[in-house]
Design a protein that fits this description.
The complex is a heterodimer. By secondary structure, chain A is of the alpha+beta class. Chain A contains 14 helices and 12 strands. Helices cover about 30% and strands about 30% of the residues of chain B. The chains are: A alpha+beta, B alpha/beta.
Amino acid sequence: MLSTLYLAVTEALRSLVANKMRSFLTVLGIVIGVAAVIALLAIGRGAQTAITGSIEGLGTNLIFVAPGNTRDPAAARNARPMKWQDVLALQDPAAAPSVQWVVPLLQRSVRVSKGDRHHNTIAFGTTPEYRIVRNYNVAEGEFFTQTHMLSRAPVVLLGPEVAQVLFDRTEGLVGETVHINGHPFRVIGVLEAKGGGGFGPNQDDRVVMPITAMYARLFPDMQGKVDGIMISAVSPEAIESAKEEIRQILRLRHRLRPDQEDDFSIFTQQEFLQVFQVITGVLTIFLGGIAAISLLVGGIGIMNIMLVSVTERTREIGLRKALGARKRDILIQFLTEATTLSLVGGLIGIALGWGLATAVEHIAARFDTTLPAVVDLQAVLLATLFSAGVGIFFGFYPANRAANLEPVEALRYE
Amino acid sequence: MTADIVIQAHDLHKIYRPGRDVEVHALRGVSFTVQRGEAVAIMGPSGSGKSTLMNILGCLDKPTRGEYILDGQPVADLNDDQLAVIRNRKVGFVFQSFNLLPRVSALENVMLPLRYAGVLRGAAQRAREALEAVGLGDRLHHKPNELSGGQQQRVAIARALVNRPAIILADEPTGNLDTQSGQDIMRLLLRLNREQGTTLIVVTHDPEVARQMQRILHIRDGRLVKEEVPAARPVPTGGVPHA
């Protein structure tokens, strides 16, 4: 059985090699289709890994609370800002036992200057727990402390990109002074580089300072208000209960009647991931469509060339029948040939797609974007199976036609 | 029926219908028998029905009416695949235009019938022996386009022999060859007939070829009109060249 298959495949390969140019042009459709799908899937999977990584890199068990209700556009416009009192209420362990850390966030565009160098970036005003919740480490210096908070100290941590722009270096900056919107701030540390990520706001282009200092020095009119609250649950299992506790506390504090909608929104990391997975799902369906169309076109090409081949080789088929080939033998011969053709196309396509994805990865790396090309075994197996399937499906009609030729007619064919 | 009769044709009719209301009677009741080991020529002008008769004898086609028993096997009622098996086991074809597969070696061409017989083990050895028997032991790996016409026809004969068939059916085997090569091929076929006892049936319109057979069947307008034993059957002389 195995040696029969071996004979059939070598025979098929020989006949394909005999018509190199024709075989090449025929499989081109399959090659291009499979290559496109493999490359796009690899890049898509790489992007997914990168995004998932950056979402998870935000910290563990994270819950975000933003003012306004995203499901109610009218409410979102008149969003009531959240207050310090909200933050304090959420920190109450009796009312919110599932909550571990509560971190307020004020974020504003600022202009950071050093001498005659200026850089526009985003300032984050927050509390010392920000470091824990966001998994932030400092490359040098120290994160600010409760003491800095209480004294509204004008201290700042620079993101590595900000440091690079202002100082041309990211080290030895502790003790330097920068001006933020014209106010002097002392540099107490440099944040660890988190990488460009390529998606979402650049995590390296920012400055972080105590929220009290931000109120006192930069944005006095924001005193007591926060843009958002980051909360970490005590464990991944506690996220749902933490969400409910937060909701009840905030509804109570905002004096909402039972028939009123929330005037705030709560997102979990999980929900971000889910939204992203929906996007990925749509992308996958789209790619699947491209694959199906290109394989269909490629398959029709194979069917066409196999019909030509059957006509050309009518005498050969007649001879084989005279020598004792049964219908099945001829059918298998031509099916093997069609399948070998499309399978070879599929394998070339996989290699080409892999190469393309790797090239894209390198080009992205040139532009400081991490976009790992992830060619997974599943995609390779699927592409192989599908291209073989296309060969069998589109090869069947020509092969069947060959198998049903009358030996006398076929032998007489010129 | 005795075991010595290898071909028994009884009242064979073949009617083609190339169009509506058009009937062509290619055979109109042909009956004859051939003994095992005989060498028989079938002669007739074109349109006489000899090709049709050859197709039926070779189990490539079925008679419309009549009975045909090949090597003890009635074949009139067999289906296509059963006929393929009969062709594979009992018939060796030699065609006017050789009909070798162009891209494969002589050895692989000869192995082809063994493959369809399901013989894999020892197939190469048997094919080599068949090629040696026709004097091509030194041309095993040559492709058809590297061989002369006579050599190609000998590869075809080796291919016909390799399954040890009951009959060898040669259709104008010398038609595409020059006189010398043609004579060599006839000598080879007759030697195999004599030495291995292979029943040989040659379809030809060349009287020189027919004269060398033990018996000549003349066919005309779909009927056997004359059966003749050549008066002076020349004894084939000389061996096979290059053997």
